[in-house]
From TrEMBL:
Pfam entry (one): HCS_D2
Keywords, ordered alphabetically: Transferase
Protein name: Homocitrate synthase NifV
GO molecular function list: transferase activity
Domain 2-isopropylmalate synthase/homocitrate synthase post-catalytic as annotated: residue spans: 237-300
Gene3D superfamilies documented for this protein: Aldolase class I
Length: 333
C-alpha cells in the first residue's frame, strides 16, 4: 500500500482532490460588513477550489445583501441540526461531533485526539472531518495518514497550525492520496494556507488549477480590510515583498533568467517583481533600477552612485524608496 502511494506520487499523476475553502467560516469574530464579505466571496470564487464553506453568521449577512453567485457548491458550518434546518438547500453541512448522526448530509468534525473513542457509522453521515493532527509532526506521519486513508471511513482533513506545519500536513494528505482537504486563505483561523497548498500541488503537478491564482492579491487586500491587519510582507505566495531582490548578482540573474530564482513568475499570483535599492545593491542592480524608472545612464557616475547608495542605506538602516534613489542619481550627474 505504502509503495503504491509513493509510486503514484512520484509518477506525477494528477488525482481527484476536492479542496474546501473555509475562509468564510473563520470571520465571525470580525465586524465585517455584508458588502466586504460579498466582495471577498466573489474573489474567493476565482480560485481553483471545489467548495466554499461559510459560517451561518456570514451566510446570513451575505444573503441579506443578495443571493449567492451560482455554479458553485456551498457548505454551511453550523453548531446544531436546528441551525442547519433554518438554511436548507446547501450542498452540505459541517457539524460538531457531538451532533453525530442527526443529519445524513452532514460532515462531522472530530479532533484527531478523540478518534480512537469514536464509533463511525457511514450509513448515518456523509463523512468525518479530522481536525488537529499538528502534534503528530514528531511521529510517523506518513504511515498514520496512509492507515487513515486505508480505512473505510469517508475522511476529510483540516490540519491546525499549532506548530506552524499545517500546510505541510495538508500537502502530505493530498500527496498520499487524500481526496478532501480543508484550508483557508492566508491560514486564517489557525489552519493551512489555501494559497500555499494550491501552489504546492500545482508545482508538484498533483492538481490541475482550473482557476485563477492572480486574484490572490485582491483577496489579500479584501481580507486585510476585514480583519484590520496587514498580512506579513514575507508571507509565502502572497507577501508583497517575496519578489523583492536587492543584491546585484541576484538582480543580474533574474534579469537574464527569472526561473533561476523564482519557481513561478510573480504575475501568476497577481504580484510583481521589485528591485530594491539597499546596502547590498551593486552596479547591475543600479542599472536595472534606472532602466525600470526610465532614468538615462548618460552622465551618471555609477561608481559614485553605488557608494552613495550603500552608505545612505546603511545610515538609514533601510532600503531606499524610488524617490530617494532618484535624488541620489541627480547628485552624481
Amino acid at each position: 500500500m505504502k509503495y503504491l502511494m509513493q509510486l503514484i506520487y512520484f509518477s506525477g499523476v494528477r488525482r481527484m482532490i476536492r479542496i474546501i475553502d473555509n475562509t468564510l467560516s473563520c470571520l465571525d469574530s470580525y465586524h465585517a460588513s455584508p458588502h466586504d464579505l460579498y466582495q471577498l466571496l466573489e474573489s474567493l470564487l476565482k480560485l481553483p477550489t471545489t467548495y466554499i464553506e461559510m459560517s451561518a453568521s456570514v451566510y446570513e449577512k451575505l444573503i441579506s445583501l443578495k443571493t449567492l453567485p451560482p455554479n458553485r457548491k456551498y457548505l454551511l458550518h453550523v453548531v446544531s441540526a436546528m441551525q442547519a434546518d433554518r438554511h436548507p438547500g446547501l450542498a452540505g453541512y459541517i457539524m460538531p461531533a457531538e451532533s453525530f448522526g442527526k443529519m445524513g448530509n452532514a460532515v462531522y468534525e472530530i479532533n484527531f485526539k478523540n478518534m480512537d473513542n469514536f464509533v463511525f457509522d457511514e450509513k448515518c453521515v456523509q463523512g468525518l472531518r479530522i481536525v488537529g493532527f499538528a502534534e503528530r509532526m514528531a511521529k510517523e506521519i506518513e504511515q498514520e495518514i496512509i492507515d487513515i486513508l486505508a480505512s473505510k471511513e469517508k475522511f476529510e482533513f483540516c490540519p491546525k497550525n499549532d506548530y506552524f506545519c499545517a500546510t505541510a500536513l495538508a500537502f502530505e494528505w493530498c500527496r498520499l492520496g487524500g481526496q478532501k482537504i480543508v484550508a483557508s486563505f492566508s491560514g486564517i483561523g489557525n489552519q493551512a494556507g489555501l494559497e500555499e497548498l494550491l501552489m504546492a500541488l500545482h508545482l508538484e503537478n498533483l492538481y490541475e488549477l482550473k482557476g485563477d491564482l492572480s486574484c490572490c492579491t485582491e483577496i489579500k487586500h479584501c481580507l486585510e480590510r476585514i480583519v484590520g491587519q496587514n498580512i506579513a510582507p514575507n508571507k509565502a505566495v502572497i507577501g508583497e515583498a517575496i519578489f523583492a531582490v536587492e543584491a546585484g548578482i541576484h538582480v543580474d540573474g533574474i534579469v537574464k533568467n527569472p526561473s533561476i530564482y523564482e519557481p513561478y513568475p510573480p504575475e501568476f499570483v497577481g504580484n510583481k517583481r521589485q528591485i530594491v535599492m539597499g546596502q547590498y545593491s551593486g552596479r547591475n542592480a543600479v542599472l536595472a533600477k534606472m532602466k525600470e524608472l526610465q532614468i538615462p545612464e548618460n552622465g551618471v557616475d555609477l561608481i559614485k552612485l553605488v557608494e552613495l547608495l550603500q552608505h545612505k542605506s546603511l545610515v538609514l538602516q533601510k532600503n531606499l524608496t524610488d524617490a530617494e534613489f532618484a535624488n541620489l542619481v541627480r547628485l552624481v550627474k
